[in-house]
Amino acid sequence: MRILVTGGAGFIGSHYVRTLLAGGYPGFEDAEVTVFDKLTYAGNLANLAAVADNPRYRFVQGDICSAEDLDAVLPGHDAVVHFAAESHVDRSITGAAGFVLTNVLGAQQVFESALRAEVGRVVHVSTDEVYGSIDEGSWTEDHILEPNSPYSASKAGSDLIARAYAKTYGMNISITRCSNNYGPYHFPEKVIPLFVTNLLDGHKVPLYGEGANVRDWLFVDDHCRGIQLVLEKGRPGEYYNIGGGRELSNRELTEKLLEATERDWSYVDHIVDPRGGGHDLRYSVDYSKTGELGYAPRMSFEDGLALTVQWYRDNRAWWEPLKAAAATARA
Ligand SMILES: NC(=O)c1ccc[n+]([C@@H]2O[C@H](COP(=O)([O-])OP(=O)(O)OC[C@H]3O[C@@H](n4cnc5c(N)ncnc54)[C@H](O)[C@@H]3O)[C@@H](O)[C@H]2O)c1
Question: Which domains occur in the chain, in start order?
């Protein structure tokens, strides 16, 4: 089995690759893995250092928006797991065009190249943010799409393209939609790693408004197991929600991060939410359909958060250069 993983140098894709090559998915212990990644600011080969010497691993630098790049590497693979995307909502508000280009056109190029190469199985990794915001209850897969940010709109667009490739060309492609992830190797612009690293350094953290926004936080390993199950058992052209972590308001999350780093509320700056109507109040997915494939989250939020905070304590050499580069870019 040869699997091509786009975006495999990012946060979630690299977790999937490390787990796959460590034999974490039964039946796939012999899988050969090609990571295809442009190495944008979010892509980092340090995330793959643990597998760099594995003979079943290969890295190819390339752009999903380039048919030429894709066609040079895709033939001969049995499956594609498509993670590559621009993934930060705040960046999509100041630079929507790049999100449409990578997330919509890039996804279409991946599917088209996979079709040309007659790849037998494709999983498109998407997000629950395509559904918009929900005050009560949880979204099932047939809920209408009401994305509110350029990021979520571009992911919704790519989901529909994926479905169209299943319906029009008979491609064996399934789509996953997951809630917010956290865990090691999470780029320190996202809320949990940003807050943890700031607090470890004794710096303040920016909390939007009163922190009323509610998110379902899922440990990255649970997400990747869900993706693997969909790869193995998902039906063509169908959507699969992945979630079931812990629903927390940003205020509750901040409280837990302050506790974990032994800081108090004097380290919190309440700032105006720059995202306006693009910042959804609450997300919540019903993952019972994926549950029928055998999916259930395993990691409790308390254990996952403790493990994550400890990882950031132990791995300053990973995140300090990323924060320094971001600070230089802002200056
Ligand atoms: N982070 C979350 O909480 C979350 C939740 C649900 C779904 N998702 C989805 O999961 C996927 C991975 O998310 P992540 O948090 O790991 O993102 P990330 O930003 O950490 O990683 C994205 C990766 O894609 C690569 N990439 C970007 N543009 C590319 C291009 N044009 N060509 C090739 N590679 C390119 C980057 O170099 C990087 O390695 C995304 O599709 C995202 O929408 C993320």
Answer: 2-182+218-242 (3.40.50.720)
pLDDT tens, position by position, 218-261 = 999 999 999 999 999 999 999 999 998 899 999 999 999 999 99
pLDDT in tens, 177-200: 999 999 999 999 999 999 999 999
- Substitution candidate for ligand 1 out of 4, 5, 6, 12 with most atoms within 8 A of CB: 12
The pLDDT of residue 279 is 65
Q: Report CA-CA distances (Å) from 40 to 15, 150, 170.
A: 17, 19, 32
Residues with CB under 6 A from ligand 1: 6-7, 9-13, 37-40, 42-43, 63-65, 83-87, 102, 106, 125, 127, 155, 178, 180-181, 187
Which residue puts its alpha carbon closest to atom 7 of ligand 1?
A: 127
151 carries an active-site annotation:
yes
Active-site position among 63, 129, 222, 280: 129
Residue 16 annotated among the catalytic residues of the structure: no
| Residue 100 predicted with pLDDT over 90 | yes
Q: How far apart are CA 103 and CA 33, in angstroms?
A: 22
CB 188 within 8 A of CB 323: yes
